[in-house]
Specification:
The chain is α+β, with helices and mostly antiparallel strands. It has 9 helices and 9 strands. 22% of the residues are buried.
């Protein structure tokens, strides 16, 4: 905390107060929650890795990891992994309470292309809240950054949270627009490119979460790839205001599994 506060040229106490005002939780609680939620993703995807080793990667002993994990998700790491293996954890969509329907591995694999993405310079806004508010937030984002928009601008959403694990109202996500060169704005960054698995989605926005679940719970565990740890990001292609349908490329950063 001292390093971040110093970079912002404020005291750590002032930084701590501002952080809690903006996020609704202390920096310690925020980091602790992200550690648990990230470890949950790894428990699902790195199925050959021991629970103990995954916990140690986040600074926990075996017993401490089980205690912290259970307190956050109300079930032990072992039980969580078992439910994931049996596709009994991600059963209901947090968006509309509908049943999540999974396809077989070949269904997803036939629709995925392995690509290399170049780095992209973007202006972005970061939000903590519900994905249900995306439409309103996108409209606000367009209005705020209209002066930077060109015919070549691309619109990108970065999802940092899984709403089946994270409280729906505490999800972390970025809305981004590609820009040419740099600007005087503070909220710019470069999205690091690299090898990605690209799934082309076209349909009702409410089904995007189900598609993500299929990719993470069915395709990833049976594919020769692992996630790199970087968040997935979606390139928006089109949106129909009348039907609510969207067309996007879902990009998952990947690396070859060592197995």
């Amino acid at each position: 905390m001292e390093g971040i506060a110093s970079y912002c040229n404020i005291s750590k106490y002032h930084f701590s107060r501002i952080f809690k005002e903006q996020t609704g939780e202390s920096l310690y609680a925020f980091v602790k929650r992200l550690r648990v939620e990230t470890s949950a993703l790894r428990l699902n995807l790195e199925r050959e890795e021991s629970i103990t080793n995954i916990g140690m990667d986040y600074g926990y002993s075996s017993s401490n990891f089980s205690s912290v994990f259970s307190k956050h998700l109300c079930l032990s790491p072992a039980k969580f992994r078992k439910l994931k293996l049996e596709n009994k954890f991600d059963v209901i969509s947090p968006f509309d309470a509908s049943k999540i329907n999974y396809h077989h591995f070949e269904y997803y694999d036939d629709r995925i292309n392995i690509n290399h993405l170049d780095d992209v310079r973007v202006v972005f806004n970061r939000y903590i809240g519900s994905y249900r508010n995306l439409r309103t937030l996108w409209l606000q984002f367009f209005e705020e950054h209209e002066h930077l928009r060109t015919e070549n601008s691309r619109f990108i959403e970065i999802s940092w949270s899984d709403p089946n694990i994270t409280n729906m109202n505490r999800c972390l996500f970025d809305l981004c627009m590609s820009i040419d060169g740099d600007t005087s704005l503070v909220n710019t960054k470069t999205l690091e490119g690299g090898r990605v698995a690209t799934y082309h989605f076209k349909g009702p926005a409410r089904e995007i979460n189900q598609t993500y679940k299929g990719l993470v719970n069915v395709w990833f565990p049976q594919s020769p790839y692992l996630p790199t740890g970087k968040p997935g990001f979606d390139f928006y292609i089109s949106h129909c205001n009348e039907t609510g349908d969207v067309e996007i490329d879902i990009n998952l950063a990947i690396k070859l599994s060592s197995n």
